[in-house]
Amino acid sequence: MANQRIYDEVDGLKFTTSDIEVGGVTSIGTEQSFTHNVDSLSDGVQGPSDADEAGQRETFRIVTTDVMQGIPILIGTHASMQFFGHESGVAPPNNYGKVVLIVPVPHALDFQAQRGQYATATIDGMCRFNLAASEFADVEGFTEHQAAPTLRHPLRLWQPKSVVHGSLLPSAVQSVAFSLAGRVLEDYGDTDKGMTAVDVAGFALGAVTLTIRDSGQQTGPPTHNMPTALLKNGVKDLVVSFEGVGDTPDAVLTLRNCKFRKSARAGGRDWSGYTLSGVMQWRDPSGAPPLIRTINDATPADRLINFA
Fold first, then answer.
1. Is 302 inside a domain boundary?
2. Is 66 exposed, middle or buried (0-12, 13-18, 19+ CB in 10 A)?
3. pLDDT in single tens digits along all 308 residues of the chain
4. 89: domain range?
5. CA angle, 64 as apex, 308 and 126 as ends, to 5°?
6. Which of 44, 68, 179, 233 registers the highest number of CB atoms within 10 A of its CB?
């Protein structure tokens, strides 16, 4: 049997309509399944005699080091998502297989940055079946023997250099993370074969986490350390500076209206570590009237979450 394998299937990722190209992709996964799976009763035999499925659905997950593309992907309008992989045993120039997902709807973002590693963004989404008759083969297409795609060099960032929360400057930062998840509404009906209705109805913020090794004593009375000071600091913008990689300049991540709610201490033979977790609130605590932040404000600097 001929070799039909595809490898390195992370090249040339692009979202059309929004015209967003993504580099530094480490993995792309898709999953096809059914919303409803129904098995009959035994009907007098040893097991179910009938098994039926309905509501075709397709989801995807992207992991990339091109982290500043995360928010634009999440808030953009996308007609398709395409990516390429090498065809095993096929000689250049036309030795790439192309996968196209129709109407991808991204709905979740998970950002992770840790000292000594490249920051990553994980993006989850679901495809909208744009016609009642659309099925798996219409939503995920594959074309073989394609020319090499255009590659984008990712804007990589790595270890956080500094963190500011209001007037506090915790040191020895080990990691920073946040997550953003949309409330996904999905449905099919009548003669639809797949999910013809996929909408994101607002976003919920997951925990903001910050890990530091700063045990510095803060002024009292009573005296306390930096993690306790952060817990006492209330609602402030969390501003994190990152080192750029190669020709990528340094960048600043602003998480507005961040409030820490928990600090967990880990002590042992190593340096003491503190992992703080908290939330971002959509409403700025100051101002008259108070400003309600969004993730898709026309001015990026005014967004709840912004890279600059």
1. yes
2. buried
3. 568 999 999 999 999 999 999 999 999 999 999 999 998 887 777 777 788 999 999 999 999 999 999 999 999 999 999 999 999 999 999 999 999 999 999 999 999 999 999 999 999 999 999 999 999 999 999 999 999 999 999 999 998 999 999 999 999 999 999 999 999 999 999 899 999 999 999 999 888 999 999 998 887 778 899 999 999 999 999 999 999 999 899 999 999 999 999 999 999 899 999 999 999 999 998 777 888 999 999 999 999 999 99
4. 6-35+54-307
5. 105
6. 68
- CB atoms under 10 Å from CB of 80, counted, come to 15
DSSP string, the chain: -----EEEEEEEEEETTTTEEE--EEEEEEEEEEEEEEE---TTSSS-S-EEEEEEEEEEEEEES-GGGHHHHHHS--SEEEEEEEETTPPSSS-EEEEEEESEEEEEEEEEEETTS--EEEEEEEE---STT--HHHHEEEEEEEPPPPP-----EEEEEEEEETTB---SEEEEEEEEEEEEEEE--TT-SB--EEEEEEEEE--EEEEE---PEEP-SSPEEHHHHHHHT-SEEEEEEEEE-TTSPPEEEEEEEEEEEEEEEE-SSS--EEEEEEEE-SB-SSTTTTPBP-SS-SSGGGSSEEE-
Residue 158 lies in a domain: yes
Asked whether residue 42 is domain-assigned, the answer is no
Is 41 inside any structural domain?
Answer: no
Domains of the chain: total: 1
